[in-house]
Amino acid sequence: VSGRPAEPSSRRIPLPVPSRLSRPLWEATREHVLKLQRCDRCHEWQWTPQVICRHCYSRELTWTKVSGRGTVYSYSVVQHAPSPGFETPYVFAIVELEEGPRMMTDIVGPGALEVSIGDAVEVVFEDFSEVTLFLFQRVPGG
Ligand SMILES: [Zn+2]
């Protein structure tokens, strides 16, 4: 993938450990793509990963690429690091994707601390040696 920094992030924060259920997500983020489960039967999206569809209980779920665009549903500015490695202040948020699901995430990048509810955001990726995290940043003018 072009544009990917050669060196992995040096931030020392707790990283997610891929499970059997979430592995397709982390394989996609490695390629700087955000994928969520979508039901083959009722076509609803869902987050977090589940064995069955929350809407119709189908087991026919397909990991499908999302737009990566959304809006800030709620947020809080974290002043006290939950563990060493976090640089404070930072913005913890719930982002509502265009596709509907809401994801817990951090808002990063320019103007992150001036974020407001309803701001347009887009996914960005941070590579660590173990895993690639998804985060969101404000869309200029959004
Ligand atoms: Zn369904």
Which characteristics define this entry?
single chain, 142 residues, mainly beta, five-stranded mixed β-barrel, three-stranded antiparallel β-sheet, 1 helix, 8 strands, globular, binds zinc ion
- Rg over C-alpha atoms, rounded to the nearest angstrom: 16 Å
Question: Would you list the SSEs in sequence order as H and E?
Answer: HEEEEEEEE
Distance between the termini: 26 Å
- Give the % helix: under 10%
Q: How confident is the prediction overall: mean pLDDT?
A: 93
Strand order of the largest sheet: 4-5-6-8-7
Summarize this structure briefly.
About 5% of the residues lie in helices and about 35% in strands. It has about 140 residues and is mainly beta. Zinc ion binds near residues 39, 41, 42 and 55.
Mind explaining what this structure looks like?
The protein has one helix and eight strands. A hairpin with a 4-residue loop joins strand 7 (about 120-125) and strand 8 (about 130-140). The protein is about 5% helix and about 35% strand. The protein starts with about 20 loop residues before the first helix and ends with a strand. The protein is mostly beta strands and about 140 residues long. The chain has a five-stranded mixed β-barrel. The model has no long low-confidence stretch (mean pLDDT about 95). The protein has one helix at about 25-30; strands spanning about 35-40, 45, 60-65, 70-80, 90-95, 100-110, 120-125, 130-140. Bound molecules: zinc ion (ZN). Zinc ion binds near residues 39, 42, 44 and 53.
